[in-house]
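Hey, sorry to bother you again with one of my protein questions. A protein chain has come my way and I'm curious about its shape. I'm sending you its amino acid sequence along with the backbone structure tokens. I owe you a coffee for this, so here goes:
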Amino acid sequence: MTEGMLVIISVLFIAAILTGILTKKNTKKNHTDHGVPFGCEENFALALDPCKDGKTLMYDLTTCRHCTRLQEFLQTHGVEYNDIVVDKYIGDARKEIVEKLKTYNPRASFPTVIFPDGSVVIGFRENLLLETIERLKQNA
């Protein structure tokens, strides 16, 4: 290996380390020590105790197109819901949310919706969602 190649490899190695350190700092800078994004403490509590406020709860991801469709569907049908965007949490907070999600959906797939009566709908299943929403309206 030439001296020039060693310099280039060293610079790339140092850059990779610094990028990793800076990325972690930037991520942690926006979260509590537990991994909850600042300003989302109340939502975190709801994620661990779904529907305690009487609203439907949806676990989703920012990158999930089915989640986006389901959000639009719930809004169109006038369903008030709390939105738990799991990939916004890091560390212990995310682990706790995923463990709670697994009690309703062992595969921890997205979206997962918990209704106040305890009904769970996994995925964007329009007919099942409509049936559940209608049943809840009739029982209200």
About this structure: The domain at 41-139 is CATH 3.40.30.10 (Glutaredoxin).
